[in-house]
Amino acid sequence: MTQAFTHVAVFGKPRAEGIREPLLEIARVVESAGGQVMFDLATAENIGSGERAGHTVHAIGKQADVAIVLGGDGTMLGIARELAPFRVPLIGINHGRLGFMTDIALDQVAEVLVPMLRGAYETDRRMLLDAEVRRQGRVAHHAVALNDVVISRGVAGGMVEYTVRVDGVTMYNQRADGVIVSTPTGSTAYALSANGPILYPSLAGLLLVPVAPQTLSNRPIVLADDVVVEIEITDVRDASAHFDMQTYSHLSPGDVVRVKRATDTVTLLHPVGYNFFATLRQKLHWSVMPSGARS
Predict the structure, then answer these.
(1) Domain 7-119: which topology?
(2) Is residue 194 a contact partner of residue 210, using CB atoms and an 8 Å limit?
């Protein structure tokens, strides 16, 4: 048994259909376990009718012992980044599609949530990326990412030309559709679809994955987590930098996207017995044998 929780924040996927009743059910479960519920402002508005008070993220960060996120991985990414400076752990309940981080099924809430709130859970710490776009020596944009930082071609099309440096040393010059700097958490997201490897969540590493590179010998590489990765745009073509695919910055020739490990981390909580490999089997169907296959 670990620490039990009393002040419980609840976040819901914004503007999601059919989410009101599940949110109220979560609140009832929390209160039945002796917890006090704090809805964020957007979620309280989503519930409507002034039934529940809403709180700012800052107030939640100062008061909440734990946060429950009802939604998909995208919802979890946004809330995790906002609460990371306050070190509030998160429990994810899936109301989306794949749900790598929101791993608890909605129909398991009553069964699973009460023991977790009373201190029976597994702790899973995840690293964040600290990224900035530097233009003519100044910071033009700053962002934090839990999954990845992606440099991609813009609306005009064509490949992006860029130089990658690690701790100031040139790794390569490349033309590609883009390049991904990913955390282990993000290795099961866009990086995976670009043929990158899956990294175990507790690994201390950064994953660098080119997207459709012109040089076919170019391959993904895993770097130490204490390096600084710089990606400089060297062509006049339109390009952009995306942070968890939720915020972005336009890039111009000579701009440098600088990525390193962030000081803050994110703590995810799972039911007792949680196993990452079981999640991979469930979400990616690793155990499914081709039809007619024989052992």
Answers:
(1) Rossmann fold (3.40.50)
(2) yes
